[in-house]
Design brief:
Elements (H helix, E strand, L loop, with lengths): L1 E9 L39 H9 L3 E5 L8 H11 L5 E4 L8 E4 L3 E7 L9 E6 L7 E7 L4 H18 L5 E7 L8 H6 L28 E5 L1 H4 L2 E2 L1 E3 L2 E3 L3 E3 L27 E8 L1
Parallel strand pairs: 1-2, 7-8
Antiparallel strand pairs: 1-14, 2-4, 3-4, 5-6, 6-7, 8-9, 10-14, 11-12, 13-14
Length: 286
C-alpha cells in the first residue's frame, strides 16, 4: 500500500517527461469576460518563501496549483523550483498560454497532460495530468481556478464536467482541486461538480475545526475533490501526533507544533498576497 497525499496550494508550472498535448489538442482560451481574476496568491519568486516553506513542510505526493508562476516562468526556473521544493524526482505540468496558469506537480510519472479551455475566462484553463500512481489504475489530477463572479462559475463547472465525461476513463481515479471561489458549499458550481466527484462533507478542518480556507477563514474557497473510487481509499491525514479524519486545512497561524511541518513558520499563512490556505487529503493506494 502507498499513501497518496493530494494537496492543494493556491499560489503560483510542470515537466518530466515532457507531456504531449493530450486529448484537448490546444491551448487554454475562451472569451474574456472583463472580470478576470488576477494577482499572486502565494507570491513565489523562485526563492525560498512562505508558500514554498508550507509546501516543503507538508510533503505532498500530488499538488494541484493555481496562479503557478515562478521566477521568469522559464523552464529552468520552474525545474529549479520543483527540485528545491519537492525533489528532483518530481514531475510537473503547467498549462500553456495562461497569465495565471494552473498546474500539477507529482511524485509519480506523468503519462499525458494538457488543458481544457475555460469558457468564461482567457487567462487560464483547466490543467490536467494523467499520473501513473501505484496500483492498477491511473490518477487524473485536474487543477482549476474558477471566477470570482458567481453567475459564471456554474458554466465553468459544466464545461469541466463535460470534458471529464468525454476524456477520462470511468474506471480510472480522479481528483479535482483548486480555488472554486465558492461562497457556500452548496452553490450551483459545487453541485454541478458533484456529478463526477464527491462534494459532500465532512470537509477538511484546521486544529480549531474551521473548514473555511480564505485568508480571513470565513469562506470555503478551496477544495480537493476525489471521485467515488478515490474517495473509497481516503484515510485520515496525520501530521505528527494529530489526525484529521476528513483532511487538513493548514494555517500556520493556528497549527501547533510547527516543528511537525518544518520549515513552515508562524506567519507564513499570513504573508502578503497569501489569499488561500493549503488543503490536504490522504488516500491509501493499493
Amino acid at each position: 500500500m502507498r499513501r497518496l497525499t493530494a494537496f492543494l496550494m493556491c499560489a503560483a508550472l510542470v515537466a518530466c517527461p515532457h507531456p504531449s498535448e493530450g486529448p484537448d489538442g490546444g491551448e487554454d482560451g475562451g472569451p474574456p469576460d472583463g472580470g478576470e481574476d488576477a494577482g499572486d496568491d502565494a507570491g513565489f519568486d523562485g526563492s525560498p518563501g512562505e508558500g514554498q516553506r508550507i509546501l516543503q513542510g507538508l510533503k505532498p505526493d500530488v499538488v494541484l496549483m493555481q496562479e503557478f508562476k515562478v521566477g521568469t516562468s522559464s523552464e529552468v526556473d520552474r525545474r529549479a523550483f520543483v527540485d528545491s521544493t519537492f525533489g528532483a524526482e518530481f514531475c510537473f505540468h503547467i498549462e500553456a498560454g495562461g497569465g495565471i496558469p494552473n498546474g500539477v506537480v507529482t511524485r509519480w510519472p506523468i503519462l499525458d497532460a494538457g488543458q481544457w479551455a475555460d469558457p468564461q475566462v482567457s487567462n487560464r484553463g483547466f490543467a490536467w495530468a494523467q499520473i501513473d500512481v501505484p496500483g492498477p489504475k491511473d490518477l487524473w489530477a485536474v487543477s482549476i481556478h474558477l471566477l470570482t463572479t458567481g453567475s459564471q462559475r456554474n458554466a465553468e463547472a459544466q464545461a469541466l464536467v463535460a470534458n471529464i465525461n468525454q476524456f477520462i476513463p470511468a474506471g480510472d481515479l480522479l481528483v479535482i482541486g483548486g480555488d472554486l471561489n465558492s461562497s457556500t458549499r452548496t452553490e450551483a458550481a459545487v453541485v454541478t461538480l458533484g456529478q463526477v466527484v464527491r462534494v459532500a462533507g465532512p470537509h477538511p478542518v484546521d486544529r480549531g475545526n474551521n473548514s473555511n480556507t480564505n485568508a480571513g477563514r470565513t469562506q470555503p474557497y478551496d477544495w480537493v475533490l476525489p471521485d467515488p473510487d478515490l474517495y473509497a481509499l481516503q484515510v485520515p491525514v496525520w501530521v505528527g501526533d494529530a489526525g484529521y479524519d476528513a483532511g487538513l486545512v493548514f494555517d500556520s497561524r493556528v497549527f501547533t507544533p510547527l516543528s511537525d511541518v518544518a520549515p513552515a513558520e508562524l506567519g507564513d499563512s499570513a504573508a502578503v498576497n497569501m489569499q488561500h490556505m493549503a488543503v490536504v487529503k490522504d488516500f491509501l493506494l493499493p
